[in-house]
Amino acid sequence: MAVPERLAWAVEQLAVRPDDRLLEIGCGTGVAVSLVCEALADGRITAIDRSAKVIAGAERRNAAHIAAGRAALRTQALEDLASGGERFDKIFAVNVNLFWVRPARRELALISGRLEPGGELYLFYEPPAAEQAAGLARTVAEALTDGGFATGTSTAPTARSALVCVRGRKAGS
Known about the structure:
By secondary structure, the protein is α/β, with parallel strands linked by helices. It is 35% helix and 30% strand. It has one domain: 3-Layer(aba) Sandwich (Rossmann fold).
């Protein structure tokens, strides 16, 4: 199965280090988990998704990474992620609408509390049309700024659209 361009680009933007601790929000079938695990040695990725069915597929795809201790997958919604638990160097989501369709202050506060000092949040999108990329990036960056993050944005053209990455670092870290 070919890796979707948006996922390959997203993992490239993450610049995964061998000892990174990552959280993926909305992991779907676990393709990005597989790509991240290829770069990990002592690091680990935790991936969550609301759907038990897609987590089951992601677990099958990543069975070797789970057995090696590089990946853990859970059926869980972001809002159910307990505060005060494991902290992450990088937290990311691909095409998760939450961050641009409504204020996500509660979720951003939860994410902020789970990031290590200096850790970053990466939100990736592939809008249906390239001309939507700038507006989408602006909306997401504003939401992150309102949530206390310093932001940066990068984009890449594709044959059909564009890819957008909005990065957030807790202000002051």
